[in-house]
């Protein structure tokens, strides 16, 4: 009833009869809700498209131009090209704000390119059925989001809609994420509540549960957005071991500020000002003496083969 009253006030542009802060906040909230409901999205997740039964994991950006909808006059990407082969590990490095995370956003199709196209397995990403595409990939971010439920239920949350995971699948994902031994040491094991936002766990434990949640769907395309940057050295080592195992047999795109974690990547792309300015293996880029080499020197990294 209150919501309808507030909406009526909004529709008729009436001055509020009471100036109490709660009333003003409530009215503004109602305005925001109805504006959101009226907003038309340009990307329809339910639109029919090509359904891929088995993703090979080949990814490419072909002449991509992009600007965020909130800043249409500022182009972040201008004619960006890159190619990732199946089962390859590709690392994106560069200063903050250069466009690394935007590449992942385009692959998951949170946004559409303004020019050029994003290609997955030789299909333009706009031609693919969106829910089917996203079910084939998994993202592990810097700050994992856990729900106030058990460890097992948090891991099962990664299963696509309509599918069911048994306990053996949960355990297999936990082992792959290097968290199984810790879980089994708890009195309630996989039924242990994690607390609000995972408050009962350390940062490394939360991150490994997030990795298990990503792996339980067996994604062919694994996206890692600075998955170890917020951890201490000991936790980073455990999480990095889990990520190294998770990368096997999958196409993996890694965003990293700690360059020590991506020295063995198959390909390293240096992004700056919305462009890819250097590409190659770690030792190749060190030999160029360019931007990547300078970044490594600042982190006291040496050439490795």
3D structure, described in words:
With 305 residues, this protein is α/β, with parallel strands linked by helices. It folds into two domains: 2-38, no CATH class; 86-98 and 127-298, Rossmann fold (3-Layer(aba) Sandwich). Helices cover 35% and strands 18% of the residues. Strands 6-7-8-3-9-10 form a six-stranded mixed sheet, with helices on both faces. The protein has a four-stranded antiparallel sheet with strand order 2-1-4-5, with no helix packed on it. β7 (221-225), α9 and β8 form a beta-alpha-beta unit. The longest helix has 18 residues, at 21-38.
CATH names the topology of the largest domain as Rossmann fold
CATH superfamily of the largest domain: P-loop containing nucleotide triphosphate hydrolases
Give the strand content.
15-25%
Return the string of H and E elements: HHEEEHEEHEHHHHEHEEEHH
How many distinct folded domains?
2
Percent helix range = 25-40%
Q: What is the CA–CA distance across the termini?
A: 68 Å
Mean pLDDT: 82
The strand order across the widest sheet is: 6-7-8-3-9-10
What's the Cα radius of gyration?
22 Å
What profile does the largest beta sheet have?
A: 6 strands, mixed
CATH class of the largest domain: Alpha Beta
CATH architectural type of the largest domain = 3-Layer(aba) Sandwich
Which runs of at least 5 residues are low in confidence (pLDDT < 50)? none
DSSP helical segment count? 11
């Amino acid at each position: 009833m209150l919501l309808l009253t507030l909406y009526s006030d909004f529709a008729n542009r009436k001055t509020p009869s009471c100036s109490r802060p709660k009333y003003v906040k409530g009215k503004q909230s109602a305005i925001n809700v109805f504006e959101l409901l009226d907003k038309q999205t340009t990307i329809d997740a339910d639109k029919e498209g090509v359904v891929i039964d088995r993703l090979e994991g080949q990814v490419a950006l072909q002449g991509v131009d992009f600007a965020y909808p909130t800043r249409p006059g500022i182009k972040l990407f201008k004619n960006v090209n890159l190619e990732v082969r199946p089962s390859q590990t590709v690392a994106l490095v560069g200063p903050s704000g250069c466009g690394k995370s935007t590449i992942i956003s385009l692959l998951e199709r949170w946004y559409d390119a303004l020019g050029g196209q994003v290609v997955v397995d030789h299909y333009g990403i706009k031609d693919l059925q969106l829910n089917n595409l996203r079910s084939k990939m998994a993202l592990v971010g810097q700050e994992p989001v856990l729900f106030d439920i058990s460890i097992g239920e948090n891991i099962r949350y990664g299963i696509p809609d309509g599918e069911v995971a048994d306990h053996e699948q949960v355990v297999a994902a936990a082992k792959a994420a290097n968290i199984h031994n810790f879980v089994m040491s708890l009195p309630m094991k996989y039924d242990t509540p994690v607390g609000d936002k995972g408050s009962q766990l350390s940062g490394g434990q939360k991150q490994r549960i997030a990795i298990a949640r990503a792996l339980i769907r067996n994604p062919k395309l694994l996206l890692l957005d600075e998955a170890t940057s917020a951890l201490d050295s000991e936790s980073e080592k455990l999480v990095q071991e889990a990520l190294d195992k998770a990368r096997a047999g999958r196409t993996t795109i890694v965003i990293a500020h700690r360059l020590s974690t991506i020295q063995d990547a198959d390909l390293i792309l240096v992004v700056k000002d919305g462009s890819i300015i250097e590409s190659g293996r770690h030792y190749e880029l060190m030999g160029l003496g360019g931007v990547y080499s300078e970044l490594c020197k600042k982190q006291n990294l040496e050439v490795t083969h």
